[in-house]
Amino acid sequence: PPPPPPPPPLFFFTPTPPHPISACLVGSEMCIRDSIMGSRGWECSPRILKHPLEDFVMVGSPDGKLTKRKLSQEQNWPLLDLNASITQLTCSDTGLVLGGTKDGQVFLYDLGQSKLIRIKQSHQSEVTALALDFQSLHFATACLNGILNLYSLVDGSLIWRSDNTECRDAVDYLEFSRDSQSILSVGIGSSARLHNVLDGSHKEIFENHKGEWIKVRWHPDGETIVCLSKSGTLALFEPDSQLFYKSINLNLRNLRDFVFSSDGKLILVGNSDGFCSLRKFPNLDLLIISDGDAKLAGTPDYYFCLLYTSPSPRDRQKWRIAACALKKNG
Fold first, then answer.
1. Cβ atoms of 251 and 12 closer than 8 Å
2. What residue ranges of the chain have pLDDT lower than 50?
3. Residues 204/193, Cβ–Cβ less than 8 Å
4. How far apart are CA 218 and CA 143, in angstroms?
């Protein structure tokens, strides 16, 4: 069948005059409520981060100052003063701010107690990506030369360092999976990889040496990786089988970033012209399974291909169960 039309936008926003948008951040429980767009590509631009649950933003400036500001007020509250430019910021739901600097330092700040927990030298070059896991046990950092470090969030100790020579691609983005068992790393012009949290082993899931994919993120369902191209195409990727199984044309050009709402029903995209659009994201559960007691479960359509062709005994068993259910219940 022909591909479905792109989802209609819920709203459009264009700043005047337009400024390049290269980073999106969203905080919400069931829908996208608050968003901050920042120009991550500018050398002298501050890093802006909204608290996931509360109504204020944190700003990391090029002169090393971390400040807090309520969205409804103009006053800034100083939090921290460092000796190097703040290049990366991320925040947990519990109010832990993780930041990285241009000289390779990483700091952890507690908003609830208004104090610096620790600061350490993580890399010898600029920190380019950070991530906190969903269980508040670990955090990961990456630098310009592609080295990725995993630390304990409890005591700050180094668990492992991924410094293999074949993995020295630049890393612009890190994200833990929903079960906190793997880390997605990717950069513009660099291959996408999954790193095992337990032992640091990694595998390349797809190449990106030509820079076709400018942004890659986990979908909130925890099973799908979503890739964005400059031409305005979203591609859905299943990491276990390394299969691209669906594409969505957004009919937008010069895209720079996107982000999902926490339930995955909405997507916010922004381009280099300062234009952003909020849209409904298509439902990925195209195969619906009933157990006979009116309980329904959905699964993405890539399982049609995987269950029939996979050599895995577990997947073949799933296929036999599904085939028997279809034969019995029609």
1. no
2. 12-42, 303, 305-308
3. yes
4. 21
